[in-house]
Specification:
Blueprint (H helix, E strand, L loop, with lengths): L18 H37 L3 H6 L1 H12 L3 E7 L4 E6 L5 E5 H6 L9 H7 L11
Length: about 140
């Protein structure tokens, strides 16, 4: 006599598997991970868009007028600099140093090369790059 709670007999040579359950769990986990990645990318995009909007930049301006975009971003990151103007035809950007009142003009080629006049980028930003402090590094 067979007990009521026992499993049915298994045919010789085959093992009972839960392949369907395993596949469902894998698909469920992949779906959840996809949703999490989409939320992170969407949140980062929204954050970047709102920060650009706060600076007065539009996405089309980044491609159409890179000098103005660069000027506004640099002025937002350095309290001592004020963005004055950008001339797309002459390929120059003009800033004003608020501490000295000096007007600084820099061309697009210098911007691309990373050659900035003194005072345009704050000292703390240059120290982060590691080559301005003048201190000798031990072990060199």
């Amino acid at each position: 006599m067979q007990e009521p709670n026992s499993q049915p007999p298994v045919a010789p040579g085959s093992k009972p598997t839960n392949v369907k359950k395993i596949v469902i769990w894998i698909l469920l986990i992949l779906g959840i991970l996809t949703i999490i990645v989409a939320l992170i990318v969407g949140g980062a995009t929204y954050y970047a868009y709102t920060k650009m909007k706060d600076l007065g930049l539009t996405p089309t301006q980044l491609g159409d007028d890179p000098g103005t975009a660069f000027g506004k971003i640099l002025a937002a990151t350095n309290d001592d600099i004020e963005f004055v103007s950008s001339d797309k035809d002459k390929e120059v950007v003009t800033f004003r140093n608020l501490k000295t009142g000096e007007t600084i003009t820099i061309d697009f080629e210098s911007i691309k090369a990373g050659d900035f006049p003194e005072g345009l980028i704050s000292q703390s930003d240059e120290d982060a790059e590691g080559d301005v402090s003048g201190e000798e590094i031990p072990g060199e």
